[in-house]
Design brief:
By secondary structure, the protein is mostly beta strands. The protein has one domain. It contains no helices and 7 strands. Strands 1-2-3-4-5-6-7 form a 7-stranded mixed β-sheet, with no helix packed on it. Strand 5 and strand 6 form a beta hairpin. The chain starts with 5 loop residues before the first strand and ends in a 13-residue tail after the last strand. The relative contact order is 0.14.
Length: about 140
């Protein structure tokens, strides 16, 4: 999994249709706080990073995106040992309606040399979100 930079300095998204825009695998993210929740708004995903041959666990269906794909992520601690991340995807070229689901990541005990261990648990996935074959 790659890291994600979320700009919190009030800047807008760049013009993703500009020839100067360079997409990143995780999209361009700007964010703000709503109480105890970090809200990130993402656009500008490169097609290659979400190709169905290389599934991206955050993208419904493993990778269908277009130039109008929009993602809102909401990060909050559900309790001291549980990180809750809610994803809302919207793309009128692919989905019939916005699509929201939540993952929970549990803090685990580990030794200093162990890689992080956090298994997501899917809470909710809407039905009937696809527009045919995504074309």
């Amino acid at each position: 999994m790659t890291g994600e930079v979320i700009y919190l300095d009030g800047r807008p998204h760049p013009d993703i249709k500009s020839p100067d825009f360079v997409p990143s695998a995780t999209g361009h993210a700007i964010g703000h706080w709503e109480g105890d929740t970090l809200v990130a708004d993402l656009v500008g995903f490169p097609k290659a990073s979400c190709d169905s041959r290389y599934p991206n666990w955050r993208v419904p269906g493993g990778g269908r995106i277009s130039d109008t794909t929009h993602l809102v992520e909401r990060f909050r601690l559900a309790d001291p040992n549980t990180l809750e991340i809610t994803y809302t995807w919207d793309d009128p070229k692919i989905y019939l309606k916005p699509h929201t689901y939540t993952y929970y990541f549990k803090r685990t005990e580990r030794l200093p040399d162990d890689p992080p261990k956090a298994a997501p648990t899917r809470k909710f996935l809407t039905d009937e979100i696809w527009k045919g074959d995504g074309k």
